[in-house]
Amino acid sequence: MDSxxxxxxxxxxxxxxxxxxWEELFGPLRASNADEVVAIGQLGQSLDGRVATPTGHxxxxxxxxxxxxxxxxxALVDAVVIGVGTAVADDPQLTVRRVSGxxxxxxxxxxxxxxxxxxxxxxxxxxxxxxxxxxxVRPSLPEGVEIAGLPTAGGQIAPSAILAALKERGLSRILIxxxxxxxxxxxxxxxxxxLHLIVAPIVLGSGRVGLTLPPIERADQALHAxxxxxxxxxxxxxxxxxxxxxxxxxxxx
Length: 253
Description:
two-stranded antiparallel sheet, 6 helices, nine-stranded mixed sheet, single chain, alpha/beta
């Protein structure tokens, strides 16, 4: 849409409402109620809650409108974060290509130093690249890639530690893009302000599921969050407001 032109600049530069229809979609991402960090999770899935086939194939679950929405999110945030499993399996670029807007810092959570040096997201194109790894791990990566060693527990870096490390590096608006396990960990830890869940009109029937959280005994223990629904052509975006459960970074676990 032509009305997108100038939205990333307006989003960052002031508090005036964004043009229709962008204020309703993206206005809530400007500030956090918990601290100075805004963390947004984005996940695309089928009608039956699958994010990939049993073989791991996940391309084309979402159509053009859903992909455009993802790229708009990238254009609004300071950094986009993925887990190393997604980086290795999909070899994404994590750039803004489908819409106009600035490129976000590219961040990979890689506790054991698995990311190959030839990964496309490590391309030296003038955009910062940050690898979050375990303290003491020194992966062999191209010159200019920033490496941040963080404490781990059970082989994982806590979502709160990830947000804190990025904030220390001047990055306060963070898109947690994938994979589903990474987004689930941030959700379970109370480290998301918002979740954008895009449902495509397809049924995979089997395969990898989207969100996976600790089990509960009763349905009334389920997470309840205000939700806003938007049509993206033939897909549906569920915008989940998680601000009530968002834990300040220095208290999250």
